[in-house]
Amino acid sequence: MSDPSGAVIAGATITAKDSAGRNFSAVSRVDGTYSIAGLPPGPYSIEAAAPDLALRNPVEITLQPGVQTEDLQLGVVLASQQIAVQDSAQTVTVDPSTNASATVLRGADLNALSDDPTDLAADLQALAGPGAGPNGGEVLVDGFSGGEIPSKDSIREIRLNQNPFSPEYDRLGLGRIEIFTKPGSDKFRGTAFYNFSDDFWNSRNPYAAEKAPFLLREFGGNLGGPLNGRSSFLMDVRRDATDNGAIINGVTLDPATLLSGPFTDVYRVAQRSLRLSPRLDFQLNAKNSLTASYRFTQMDVPGAGVGGFNLLPRGYDAGTKNQTVQISETAVLGAASVNDIRFQYFRAAVADRPFSAGPAIQVLGSFSSGGAPIGRSADLQNSYEFQDNVSLAHGKHTWRLGARLRGQTEATVSPLNFGGAFTFSGGVGPALDSNNNRVLDASGRPVLVQITSIEQYRRTLLFQMLGYSPAEIRDSGGGATQLSIAVGNPRFAGGQSDVGAFLADDWRLQPNLTLSLGLRYETQSNMSDRRDVAPRVAIAWAPGAGKNPGAKTVLRAGFGIFYDRFALTNTLTAERYNGITQRQYILTNPDSFPLIPPIASASAQAASLIERVSDRLRAPSIMQSTVAIERQLPWNTKVAVTYANSHGLHLLRSRDINAPLPGTFDPTVPDSGVFPFGSTGPIFLMESAGLYNQNQLILNVNTSASRNVSLSGSYVLNRAMSNTDGVTTFPANQYNLANEYGSAATDVRQRFSVNGSVNTKWNLSLSPFIVIQSGPPFDLTVGQDLYGTTLLNARPGFAATANRPGVIRSPYGLLDPNPTPDERLVPRNYGRGPGSILLNLRLSKTIGFGKERESNRDARPAPGARSSNSGGLRGVFGRAPVPHPYNLVISMAVRNIVNHTNPGAIIGNIASPLFGQANQPSDARDLGGGGFSESANNRRLELQVRFTF
Predict the structure, then answer these.
(1) Closest alpha carbon to 613 in 523, 534, 689
(2) Which residue has the higher pLDDT, 71 or 754?
(3) Which end of the chain is more exposed for a tag (fewer CB within 10 A), N or C?
(4) Do 327 and 446 fall into the same domain?
């Protein structure tokens, strides 16, 4: 199946109607092939439709016994036109690629999503749900992994959670996001848009003392059409200029009085980006078509890293240039076989320039200042991906086989922490009276209390001003907790490759029974494990359907093994901190603040940190099982209920294998303890020893009650437990891992989402987007190194009494920052944040003008097709709009229309003055990063004007 340019069409609905009026349906695959098995011989009328495409007229054929092929070419129609075969898209079938738990967004359904690529990615992840497994799903663009999400104007359709057990994919199907871009066309068509938003319309950020500035101006468009009779093009251009207010929210000291208090400020970040996306489609001959596309993105963010706890000196100028080249060639090898070859090259170049140099100051959970730790850095990544997939239909079998080869190189200049960093984490210290003298008990000993990180920092500055010695400052509860500094060669590079091959068979045993069998094998460099064999099996059965595949109920079940790859970043980290390329020294209780001691002095006081990759490393694996029931309901509605179980083995985590032996380390005596490897420096080992268990109950509803109403909704009940949240997860106690098994980071218990489009009278369209979910877990820590690992991730104990020094009262009970051996420790991720409510709404008015095209008349519904104006909906929706060649669309998009405050990450350090609170909203995703952010205001209104022809 192809479009006018010869490009294959995926996701098209094909309906074969026999002489008795029965419909038999199928959906075209990624390679454009389709199959409708079990049809008895006789005459049929074939109809087909896809977004903006449809057959001009039904194709009349007479089936003979055996296999018969029919190559369908769809013509271009306007998105607002009505296609008679739309009803068939809401039927449930036993085809493995049409599971009712999937969601397909196209046309008006895309309008509910954000135009900003960063917000669009977040919206899609929310709709896909808490993907099964610890890492969720993946994003594929035109079948390729990696890369970046294209501009929404160049997207043809988006599929979520489709065919979860297909061996063609290496990652879990639940949570997978597949994006397909638009091809060229046989008629010139185009779009021009301008989006505008100003803080005058928006509400104040609840975490800022004043209203943050915000100014958004986005403009661009696309133009597509024929080059000649065999080729077409599409050019997409987008320019974003967003002045976003970065919210700084923490606790600092008054320079004059040294009194601590809340501090908020706003820094205007002038973000700019340019995106160019040309695409060419060629019909080489009757059996071969070629698609070539190029995407270029340039982003400049002067002021990245500012916000949250980071004060202005921590900022840096971030520049990014991404380039993507994609080439796909599709060949029809025979009457029932297609070969699809794809190649992608992705290049990402990043350059960062800090605002200021010098040592960084981190007062945990209070503020961060000093120089930006990244230094003047640059990074260049090159990624390659080659795929070759073949589809073959034979009798009741549809075979697919293929292979994928990926390669990645990275060269970086990273003087990270070459300027050094002082850390103040708080802890237990003497109580002070109003004159800053130590309070003594009846026996003349200091009364010990829990002091916050900002109080530790205040005492350091105060007693330095009073002329105290470093020892006296520390006895009074001051002094930095740690000093870390890196030295060595900032330049290093590396590479990695992986390969995967698969074989799949969709076997239509009966018209109402399909068995899908698959096998995948993967392996990679930088890992000695070669055991990554991934079997997949799924079955779909329509009970009681007999020989009619147009079923009302379908039962599905599936099982598969999925593997994660060990990222190149992890290998480079180990090569970087191997004790030769770079050395990272960590000094406990340094006395030199605010001066950095000579490197010779630092190396004499502490051994350098070593990073290693375990020799027994294995690829993390997830075994997933699902059982689902799907039901077709009246009013073009499908419902699916799915139970999914995920069991993960060999998940990545890290441990300090040179931690002091149990009972030998005294936190009050630096470098005390017996170290297994002799030296006192930590040795961080990346290993695959994690465990993950997840159970989900998922309800999906998709409805097209009429051609003017299209809605999708889901509800997920989720429980996820693990002993790691990734390779950067360290156990609190390196010799006691029993307390690490707790709520996983993905343990969001409940999630509800709705999106879609509703077209009303007068060409008014409403596009809602709603996500309501319960709160995620967070870890409770004391901000102290209680085990001699240099890690500040120790967790408190549950105190039996409030009389112990430093014990604090919390919603989680009495927490002891210095737990005794008989106290039960707080489990990992024991805290639970608040839930969130996000309600977005887009209201659009379409003004059409110009004479109706002849091709549009041809694509009107066939006589007898069900009209959207039936029943009581007539008064609400009125007549279907007459399609016009020119349309002006005026929209108002509102993000968080109810102005609900959704807190971001909760601070779990009990030594922070903001313990148990958030200091940013949940959508402030890029704080500390180098990408775009539009998080200045809590409720954001955006005026959008769009012209299409």
Answers:
(1) 689
(2) 754
(3) C
(4) no
> Could you tell me if residue 361 is inside a domain?
yes
CA atoms in the 13 A half-sphere facing the CB of 779: 22
Chain-centroid distance, C-alpha 158: 15
**Whether residue 86 is found in the same domain as residue 204:** no
Angle at 862 between CA 858 and CA 863, to 5 degrees: 130
Asked whether 686 and 576 are in contact (CB, 8 A), the reply is no
Which of the residue ranges 118-122, 367-371, 711-715, 733-737 would you say has the lowest mean pLDDT? 118-122
Calpha distance 582→573 (Å, rounded): 10
Q: Cα angle at 801 between 797 and 806, to 5 degrees? A: 60
3-state secondary structure string across 242-276: EEEEEEEEEEEECCCCCCEEEEEEEEEEEEEEEEE
At 572, give phi and psi (nearest 5°): -65, -35
User: Has residue 746 been placed in a domain?
Assistant: no
Question: For residue 161, what pLDDT is reported?
Answer: 81
Domain boundary among 425, 460, 489: 425
Q: How many domains does the chain have?
A: 3
pLDDT the model gives residue 600: 80
Whether residue 452 sits in one domain with residue 305: no
Domain boundary among 425, 452, 469: 425
Whether residue 271 lies inside any domain: the answer is yes
419 and 439 in one domain? no
Query: Which residues are paired to 195 by β-bridges?
Result: 218, 944
pTM: 0.85
Over residues 626-650, the pLDDT tens digits come to: 999 999 888 888 999 999 999 999 9
The separation between CA 346 and the C-alpha centre of its own chain, rounded to angstroms, equals: 19
Q: What helix, strand, coil percent values describe the chain, rounded to 5? A: 10, 50, 45
The b-or-e profile of 743-780 (16+ CB within 10 A means b, else e) is: bbbbbbbebbbbbbbbbeeebebbbbbbbbbbbbbbbb
> Rounded to an integer, what distance in angstroms lies between the CA atom of residue 730 and that of residue 732?
6
Q: Which residue did the predictor score with more confidence, 714 or 12?
A: 714
In this structure, the answer to whether residues 265 and 404 fall within a common structural domain is yes
Give the pLDDT confidence of 487-546 residue by residue, as tens digits.
Answer: 999 999 999 999 999 999 999 998 889 999 999 999 999 999 999 999 999 999 988 765
Angle in degrees, CA 182, 183, 184, rounded to 5: 125
Same domain membership, residue 301 and residue 226: yes
Given a cut of 90, whether residue 73 has pLDDT beyond it is: no
The amino acid that residue 911 corresponds to is A
Angle CA(830)–CA(832)–CA(837) in degrees, nearest 5?
Answer: 160
What is the overall mean pLDDT for the chain? Answer: 85
In a domain, 871, yes or no: no
C-alpha to C-alpha distance for 444 and 638, rounded to whole angstroms = 76
